[in-house]
Amino acid sequence: MAVFKPKFITFDCYGTLINFDMAGAASAIFADRVSAEEMLAFTTDFARYRMDEVLGAWKPYPDVVCQAIARTCKKWGVEYKDSDGAGIMEACATWGPHPDVPAGLAKVAEAFPLVLLSNTMNDLITHHVPRLGAPIHRVFTAEQAQSYKPRMRGFEYMLDELGCGPEDILHVSSSLRYDLMTCHDMGIKNKVWVNRGHDPANPAYGYTEIKDIGGLPGVVGL
């Protein structure tokens, strides 16, 4: 079969490209309030509440983080301080790409325009795009779309802005729940799952699996 040549390769940014270590940031901040033995369960709940917080009307991402960590603390009976959410957001701005990202992105950027669709704020993502090591054609944020993934609105906004349809893109993400399930429902047939251990596999959603971005050039015949 012929290799699919998309008009654009679109990416989730945080987790997929940027090593978005929310668990590490929360672990450092709450080390004095949550035991080491319980920290994994605590940060897992934090991730689940972040997902829940983005399912409604759009709000600034710092509000998503602060409300999610406050809800986690309430569940665990742990003291919450206003500085906790702010500390996590400060850590966000410092994170860089996974080691495999710059070379893999640079290779595919030689042949395809690269696009980001990210659950972030306009000012936050400016810290991260220059660290990716490849030219990025367009960047779309939840702030621009006024909607977070996994809702469809962000994908619709991106496709409208690019002037293309679901059949024209290859979407790449490490998250089935935030990205690839929605892509499936929207008829985006060409999908790549970067298996970074964020979600369990579910081949029913029709993706090509790679272990890191180094495998992406092979997917598009480079």
Describe this entry's structure for a reader.
There is one protein chain. By secondary structure, this protein is an alpha/beta fold. Helices cover 41% and strands 11% of the residues. Helix 9 (176-186) links the parallel strand 4 (169-173) and strand 5 (191-194). Helix 1 packs across helix 4 and helix 3 packs across helix 4. The chain is globular and about 55 Å long. The mean pLDDT is 96.
The CA-CA distance between the termini, in Å, is: 15 Å
The ordered string of helix (H) and strand (E) elements is EHHHHHEHEHHEHEEH
Assign the CATH class of the largest domain.
Answer: Alpha Beta
Total of helices: 10
The description of the largest β-sheet is: 6 strands, parallel
Q: Total number of β-strand segments?
A: 6
Per CATH, which architecture of the largest domain? 3-Layer(aba) Sandwich
Give the overall form. Answer: globular
CATH topology of the largest domain: Rossmann fold
Number of domains: 2
The SS-based structural class is: alpha/beta
Give a concise summary.
It comes from Rouxiella badensis. The chain has 222 residues and is of the alpha/beta class.
